[in-house]
Design goal:
The chain is 33% helix and 21% strand. The strands form four sheets. The chain has a five-stranded mixed beta sheet. Strands 3, 4, 7, 8 and 9 form a five-stranded antiparallel beta sheet that branches. It is globular, with a radius of gyration of 29 Å. The N and C termini lie far apart (95 Å). It is of the alpha+beta class. The relative contact order is 0.10.
Length: 535
């Protein structure tokens, strides 16, 4: 009698495990790709923000602690959204690979894991501000497709049970056949995803056309020309008016909303509103427009940071609209002290009613630097309020204004540890020379910008190596709502030196020395750079 010895790791179950390695992981990745591709047409029919990656990424942003989010902004800058998307894709890929390996051994469990990712996406979509039940459909559709594709691909990898043959319910393929099936799956998924993107682009064509065809009316109140001497023209110092393409963008939108101006509506209602208003874009443009130069800055801007820009805005005075609706500020007996602006993607921003009605040029802006607002900066309509950080004033893609109180409602960022009220702090920045640059000895133009919107900048001073403060030359002032450029001639001696700047606002307050982070209402401290001067 001949005895057959089975070597460890060579039995049927072990062979299945070998098959369920790299090939099974690829099956899981292909299934996930198919799910994401299938979700694209569904998201195009619902709304782009409902796509699984966007919904999950947005939910992560919503639940990220403020300190962590500020670290991400510092570490990755305006690429933070890209980093978040890539991180989400990596986690999805790992989960998909695990589902593929599991599906070869336990088909139901593996497919259930794939489908659960779709359920997670649906839950994330429904958790977003302003979500509707339809927002769950793209993720659910993607999860169902991923589970079905994984079932087919995993079945192609499973070996028949001993003695079962082809009638055992499985149909294994050789490596080449499986490769062809995998390639066909990826190709079909890519085609579906491309079709979904094209469908989404077709849906956004109205928005693109409405902006391209828009001719802004001339302002009833035109801004004066930028004063001669406002732009000092120092090499290394940016322009006085920031081009729209270079203007900072910090928001939570992973997909920039593309709003059709012809379908846009603005509702104004709430406490103390005697006459609720609903305005179309054409009706808004028919009102007197005001042009005004305003510097905006983000509360996430660290001392010396880049999230500040100056532009010429065109829009309707917000105070005029509120008065037309019968709104009175609290100082005149009005019941509402907070104006809650809501964007088309559900973001809410709370602004003091007293501030927007105190005479400053708070605008519902439709234009930026002589052109319609770019989509990334809020087309067709956004709020601009000089003197306040963006998170309490600069709502983009505006669709609703509701009057309420700070006690009754906390806007999006207030629920995430930021202050309810946030006037801009006096700040200054050295733009040239750059930190750690190497300079020749001799005359050096030290230059930068300073801002204290709605108070103005009265003086800028610079010192080297902790020495006495020396007054810098200021560029011409373009009102109190914009930054001012400055320059200080420095005779640089060989060695390592530290330059520091401070500003004094129009009310005589000196920029504080103590460093403090951005939470909860903006950073404080004085910017400094260290440079090496060679002989």
């Amino acid at each position: 009698m001949t005895r057959t010895r089975h070597r460890p790791g060579r039995g049927p179950s072990a062979r299945a495990g070998a098959v369920g390695g790299p090939a099974a992981a690829l099956a899981g990745l292909a299934a996930a790709f198919a799910g994401l591709a299938a979700a694209e047409p569904a998201a195009a029919l619902v709304r782009p923000e409902a796509a699984p990656l966007t919904a999950v990424g947005g939910a992560v942003v919503d639940r990220t602690p403020a300190a962590v989010r500020e670290w991400a902004v510092r570490a990755f800058g305006t690429s933070d959204k890209l980093v978040l998307t890539l991180g989400t894709l990596v986690l999805l890929a790992l989960t998909a690979a695990a589902a593929g390996i599991l599906a070869v051994r336990r088909p139901r469990a593996g497919c259930a894991l794939a489908a659960s990712v779709g359920v997670l996406g649906a839950v994330a979509a429904l958790s977003r501000p302003g979500a509707a039940w339809q927002d769950a459909l793209p993720s659910l559709a993607g999860g169902a497709v991923a589970a079905a594709v994984l079932y087919v691909l995993a079945a192609a990898l499973r070996r028949p049970r001993p003695g079962a043959g082809r009638s055992g319910g499985t149909w294994p393929l050789d490596r080449r056949a499986f490769g062809r099936l995998l390639a066909a799956t990826v190709a079909a998924s890519a085609a579906a995803g491309y079709a979904g993107r094209r469908l989404g682009a077709h849906g956004a064509a109205g928005a693109t056309s409405s902006r391209a065809d828009l001719v802004l009316p001339p302002p009833a109140v035109r801004a004066a020309p930028v004063p001669a001497g406002a732009d000092l023209g120092v090499p290394g110092l940016g322009p006085f008016i920031t081009p729209a393409r270079d203007f900072y963008r910090v928001d939570t939108a992973l997909v920039v909303p593309r709003v059709d101006a012809d379908a846009w509506r603005l509702d104004i209602h709430g406490d103390g509103v005697a006459t609720p208003l609903t305005l179309t874009f054409a009706e808004l443009l028919a009102r007197p427009l005001t042009e005004h130069d305003i510097t905006l800055c983000c509360v996430s801007n660290e001392v010396g940071g880049p999230y500040v820009g100056n532009a010429r805005w065109l829009g309707v005075r917000l105070a005029d609209l509120l008065r037309e609706a019968g709104v009175r500020p609290p100082s005149r007996g009005g019941p509402a002290d907070q104006l809650v602006a809501r964007s088309v993607d559900g973001m809410t921003i709370g602004t003091p009613v007293e501030t927007v009605m105190d005479g400053r040029e708070a605008l519902l802006a439709v234009g930026m630097n002589g052109e319609p607002l770019p989509f990334a900066h809020g087309f067709p309509v956004r709020m601009v309020v000089p003197g306040l950080y963006g998170y309490v004033s600069a709502c983009k893609w505006l669709r609703e204004l509701r009057l309420t109180t700070f006690d009754a409602y906390d806007a999006y960022w207030v629920r995430r540890s930021w202050a309810r009220r946030a006037p801009v702090k006096t700040q200054s920045r050295i733009d040239t020379p750059r930190a750690f640059s190497r300079l020749p000895a001799g005359p050096v133009a030290v230059a930068g910008v300073a801002w204290a919107q709605h108070r103005g900048i009265a003086r800028v001073e610079v010192r080297a190596d902790g020495g006495p403060w020396r007054e810098a030359r200021l560029g011409a002032a373009d009102g109190v709502d914009t930054w001012r450029q400055w320059v200080w001639p420095w005779e640089a001696a060989p060695g390592r030196h530290t330059l520091q700047v401070r500003a004094t606002d129009g009310q005589g307050a000196v920029q504080p020395e103590q460093r403090r982070g951005t939470l909860p209402d903006g950073a404080t401290g004085r910017h400094s750079v260290t440079v090496d001067v060679r002989p």
